[in-house]
Amino acid sequence: MDFCCGTTMTARLAPLQTDGGAQLTDVPFLYCLTCGHTVVAPAVEFDVSMYTHYCDTDGVKQASLCDVVNREKIQAVLEEYPGPTDIPHSIATIEQIDHMLDVWNFAAQIGDTAWIEDVKNTLLLLRQVRLQTQQLQTQS
Predict the structure, then answer these.
(1) pTM
(2) DSSP structure string for 4-64
């Protein structure tokens, strides 16, 4: 999954804390600028999974993903999902809001109240961003 809320996610490096207490640094994550959803980049997900398992089973407390993945692969992920360079503020499009309303309808159909609350919070955030976007456009 390389998009969320209707936009392409951006990549950033961050540490990953495992359930076993190990910290894995230099992990490329995909990050949604609209809602903050974060996932390990798919290109290194298997490597991260295997290395965190190794760290947890062997008692390693801190390691770098660069120990098992070459820096060129990590750099390729960062280049594939660049952050916005010319947009000073987040932008929420009508399509993103429509998509979240579709998700809301599906969550209501299956009766998942926790999911409905998550979608509601995301819609409130999108509304705020949309209002800010409209204000910026009228000022221009």
Answers:
(1) 0.58
(2) ETTEE-EEEEEEEE-TTS-EEEEEEEEE-TTT--EEE-GGGHHHHHHHHHHHHHHT--EEE
